[in-house]
Design goal:
Distance between the termini: 13 Å
Largest sheet: 4 strands, parallel
Number of strands: 7
Helix content: 55-70%
Number of domains: 1
Order of helices and strands: EHHEEHHEHHEHHHHHHHHEHHEH
Radius of gyration: 21 Å
Number of helices: 17
Strand order of the largest sheet: 2-1-6-7
Strand content: 5-15%
Structural class: alpha/beta
Length: about 325
């Protein structure tokens, strides 16, 4: 049975935790957390923690607030996590396209399931592994390696990472997440700033999307092509009618398409200046909208995504955080 993914933005997690701890004045939503835990235990719905949630929770200087929120997040998610789109989701989408186009003898990936990871490694879109500190170092006994990796993938270690209960671990992880975060913001700003603002609206959109496709997606596609080892004499699927970059992204690399459309629409003449909060939301929504059944986020993003018809395109239900009490009804419908 395919699990229904429910993606929650930072304020949704905060509001749910307030309801759970009895700090919310919303009486109508009092039973909501227990309903979510029931569905999670049944396995019909999952509530993964995304990379953006790790970064935003760690930044909170209030230690007690971080710990309370982190405990709720880890318990409800049961340690299930989702990595950044450009490190996990987009490469998987590109790999599926290559598999189909070149008729490769391998199964297509269920991207919605494949992007779900476990523990801290999964939140970076990776798998935990031990690397020798010296080239000539003796490998650890296999059983000891399993014990160490199971700890790294455990819910408790994920809690320690998100909560920052250990201040030294918090500082080190903040440096890592900030580096990844800042690098991605620069790329988004460069993509948006390359297009002259004084251009016909549709032409500006099309030119920006084409540049995004060439500069950001083709390099990932090339890396994935090397990984899947496309044979020189391999078969090629019957060539479909010529597609524009927009049609290709919408069909084959939906997380990249959502990221571009939201970023471009949000820019509105800012000249490529990307606000940190906007980036966090766009990064999160880029894979949440195509692969989650339900996405709970800020009203402004819900309105913008609906204007762009992204929810209809990918069949996701968008719910504003301000109406989180309606989540119970949506869960019953999925």
């Amino acid at each position: 049975m395919r699990r229904n993914i429910v993606c929650l933005d930072q304020n949704a997690w905060i509001e749910l935790s307030r309801i759970f701890y009895g700090d919310s004045k919303d009486e109508s939503a009092r039973s909501l957390p227990s309903r979510l835990f029931d569905l999670a235990h049944q396995g019909s719905h999952i509530f993964p923690i995304s990379f953006e949630r790790l970064h935003e929770t760690q930044k909170d200087s209030n230690r007690e607030r971080r710990i309370r929120l982190a405990r709720f997040m880890v318990d409800l998610s049961d340690g299930l996590t989702m990595g950044p789109a450009y490190k996990r989701t987009i490469p998987l989408e590109c790999r599926n396209h290559l598999t189909m186009y070149h008729c490769l003898p391998r199964k297509l990936l269920d991207v919605g399931e494949s992007i779900i990871g476990k523990g801290l490694a999964g939140i970076f879109g990776a798998e935990a592994a031990l690397v020798p500190s010296k080239p000539d170092a003796e490998p650890l006994p296999r059983e000891l390696e399993k014990i160490i990796l199971s700890h790294v993938n455990s819910n408790e270690f994920l809690f320690q990472a998100i909560s920052g209960e250990n201040e030294e671990l918090r500082r080190e992880l903040l440096m890592v997440t900030k580096s990844i975060h800042d690098e991605a913001i620069i790329v988004m700003q460069e993509n948006l700033a390359k297009i002259p603002p004084r251009m016909d609206k549709q032409k500006r959109h099309d030119q920006a999307l084409s540049k995004f496709f060439v500069d950001s997606i083709l390099p990932i596609m090339a890396k994935e092509a090397m990984k899947v080892e496309i044979p020189l004499n391999g078969s090629i699927k019957k060539t479909p009618p010529a597609e524009s970059p927009e049609q290709f992204l919408r069909r084959s690399v939906p997380s990249a398409y959502v990221s571009f459309e939201l970023g471009h629409a949000r820019d509105k003449g800012r000249g490529g200046r990307v606000l940190e909060n906007d980036f966090n939301d766009i990064s999160f929504l880029s894979y949440a909208i195509p692969y989650a059944k339900i996405v709970v986020t800020e009203r402004g993003w819900v309105q913008l995504a609906r204007q762009l018809k992204l929810d209809r395109m990918y069949g996701s239900h968008l719910l504003p955080v301000s109406k989180i009490g309606r989540l119970t009804d949506l869960l019953s419908e999925t």
